[in-house]
Amino acid sequence: MTGTRSRWTAAGAVAAGVLLAGCTSTVSGTATPLASAPPTTSEAPDPTPSEPPVDVTPAPAPTVGTLLEAHRIASVTSLVQATFPARTDTCFPSGPWSDAGALDAAYFGSGTAGTVLDRWGFVTAWGQCNSDPADGRATLTMVAELSDPESARRAAAELAADQAGAGYEPTSVPGVDGEAVLLEDGGEDVVQVFVPVGRMLAYAYHTAAAGQGLDDVGRLMTDQVGLLQGFTPTPQAQVPTLPPDPVGLQSLTLDPPGDFTDFSGPYDLEGYLRLAIDPARERDLLSANGFRGFYSKQSDEDELSYAVALYAFPTSTQTNAVYTTFAELEATEFGGTRFTLPSIPDAPCFWFESGESFYQRCYVGYGSYLASVDVLGLTAPDDVAAMDRLLPAQRDLIDG
User: What range(s) does the DUF7373 domain occupy (predicted)?
Assistant: First the structure.
């Protein structure tokens, strides 16, 4: 799973409520009940009106399907690196959001944005965050699924009003039909923009050098709108019945120790790329080798985090091609130090520094399947006890 190394910090920060791997229906948080009366004014909406509308389609109760829908939205959330190639470092907040209050705390911090989203039928969302390691400037993108196009439009206006103040001023972004606020401070532009596209609400937070923020966000949101124009959100009543394992990979993916995070579950190719370190290169590699599907199980237990990933291809020839290339990338591009795992000495295994701790990644393949196992949070790079148990168990699952 070449792309997910930088995800573990983000994954740990998302409430680990829905166990897609186990197909349960427990989730973090609950949906806020929708009230029942429409706004009575055509003026700019109050961010916290007391009587929400009656015509909002109620969001489904959070289930496994809610996270599956978030994983679908991942596929059409703009890749920050596609617009800003220098912003290669993954940051928080990223990933799926099934609770509007948690999303508010991570993205907006207003204490009222979650109420706005719930009032307009919030179903679920996916977010991306990338920063430039050279200057620390960051870009966040987020796409939320709401009740209907009018709800998305009103939510955009209310959220922009909610964020105005504290130096932010209303503005417009060239070529973008949405709401925006701009903060100009100390030679920096900070832009927030909210753009409705059908039932979907696209959001971006972008920092840039003075005078560049609006044009930058215009390019980013042009890409984002293009992605959403080809997306059909799942009707609310059908969200709970989304297939949890569309390619049949769940049972072949090892259950790691601990509590699953919301990143766990199936992804199509574009969704997987939202977990990738180098999306462009991995898109080319996986597409060229007939990528059929991907399933991830990520978990936390005490001081350690784990990730098990399974890729499916048409034949062993294509599996081997990806296996070889991923191993080369870990060593040459991503700075991994190779080590030998006692239980499977020929497996490509690498360790990496991660702050004050270490993590390990090993690959194993058989037939049409390629798997990787990660162990994060180790105090020593040569502590192979967990990996020595997990990798053979994953191998046994895929070789039958």
Answer: 58-243
How high is the pLDDT of residue 36? 22
Task: Please state, for a pLDDT cut of 90, what percent of the chain lies above it.
Answer: 83
Strands 169-171 and 138-145, sheet pairing: unpaired
Q: What is the dihedral of CA 278, 2, 265, 87, to 10 degrees?
A: -30
Domain ranges of the chain: 64-238, 250-399
Query: Using CA atoms, how far apart are residues 362 and 393, in angstroms rounded to an integer?
Result: 12
Closest-CA residue to 242 (of 382, 6, 66)? 66
Residues 196, 152 contacting (CB under 8 angstroms)? yes
pTM above 0.85, yes or no: yes
Give the model's confidence band at 50: pLDDT under 50 very low, under 70 low, under 90 confident, else very high.
very low
Cβ-contact 346, 276 below 8 angstroms: no
CA distance 108 to 95: 15
Domain 64-238 grouped into CATH 3.40.190.10: no
Distance CA 86, CA 377 (A): 28
Mean pLDDT of 240-261: 97
> Tokens 């003075």 — which residue?
210
Helix runs in 78-173, H state only: 80-83, 100-103, 113-119, 149-163
SS3 content of the chain, % helix, strand, coil (to 5): 35, 25, 40
Helix 316-332 to helix 279-288 angle, to the nearest 10 degrees? 160
Per the rule left: phi > 0, alpha: psi between -120 and 50, beta: everything else, 258 is: left
Nearest to 256 by CA among 293, 202, 221, 295: 295
Specify whether the CB–CB gap between 151 and 120 falls below 8 A: yes
Here the tokens at position 275 are 């977990």
- pLDDT tens digit sequence for 325-378: 999 999 888 889 999 999 999 999 999 998 899 999 999 999 999 999 999 999
Q: Judge whether 295 and 249 are in contact, CB under 8 Å.
A: yes
Of the candidates 252, 236, 257, 356, the residue with the CA atom closest to the CA atom of residue 311 = 252
- C-alpha distances in angstroms, 49 versus 53, 264, 376? 10, 36, 45
Residue of 275, 270, 266, 253 lying closest to 2 (CA atoms): 275
Three-state secondary structure call for residue 337 = strand
Q: Where are the alpha helices (DSSP H) in 92-212?
A: 100-103, 113-119, 149-163
